[in-house]
Amino acid sequence: MTWSEQAWVAIEPIYQSIVAMPFITELQEGNLPLEKFQFYMTQDSGYLEHFGRALALIGARASDINDALAFMRFGENAIVVENALHASYFQDFGIVERGVLEPACHHYVHYLKSTAALDAVEVAMAAVLPCFWIYKEVGNYIYTHQRAIGNPYQRWIDTYAGEDFAVSVRRAIECCNRVADTATDYMRVRMIDAFVTASRLEYRFWDSAYRLVRWE
Ligand SMILES: Cc1ncc(CO)c(N)n1
Ligand SMILES: Cc1ncsc1CCO
């Protein structure tokens, strides 16, 4: 099994709980309450900025120059997507400002930034992979299962189900497999652990948006 196949097996139960969660089923049906989507959008805007910074840092630390270039571009794209959210989705969904990073988002971005800064670069690549891969799978899942016509969240679905995003996802998976190929068994295990941790934080991110979890 390749590293990525092994990693996906490790998170399959988490992925199955993600596609079953009300945030996702209601997004798919187009009946997710606006307030929950607005909460998600503001948090995701903060997420994408910090995620972009973490990706650029991984790029700076990558051993292979092509991996460095790939991750710097991912970082750039994440910030471009953030800017697009601000320019259009915020207006479309009546969001005035981003506000603070609430607990789930705060936890996730700081996990990614500290891993990118202080852990082995292979582990950092594995930690950011769920952000690519799970979104792709969820985007595809919603796209193939949706029945609603005129879904207000269609643009979100199209972004992650689209081919541009798929290209980045394949590239990120390929980087992880390549670094895993020459890594020690111990490093490969730490990469899996990081992949699992980030997948749990993906679950939390949606769950907290659904429940509107804010700082006390
Ligand atoms: C929380 C989260 N994870 C992954 C992505 C994919 O970019 C996103 N936009 N938000
Ligand atoms: C993973 C990811 N999410 C938004 S942009 C980006 C990098 C894709 O190039």
From TrEMBL:
Which family does the UniProt entry place this protein in?
Belongs to the TenA family.
Instruction: Name it.
Output: Aminopyrimidine aminohydrolase
Q: Does the keyword Translocase apply?
A: no
So what EC number does this one have? 3.5.99.2
Species of the source: Parapedobacter defluvii
| Role according to the record | Catalyzes an amino-pyrimidine hydrolysis reaction at the C5' of the pyrimidine moiety of thiamine compounds, a reaction that is part of a thiamine salvage pathway.
Q: What class of enzyme is it?
A: hydrolase
**Higher taxonomy:** Bacteria, Pseudomonadati, Bacteroidota, Sphingobacteriia, Sphingobacteriales
**Pfam families under this entry?**
TENA_THI-4 (PF03070)
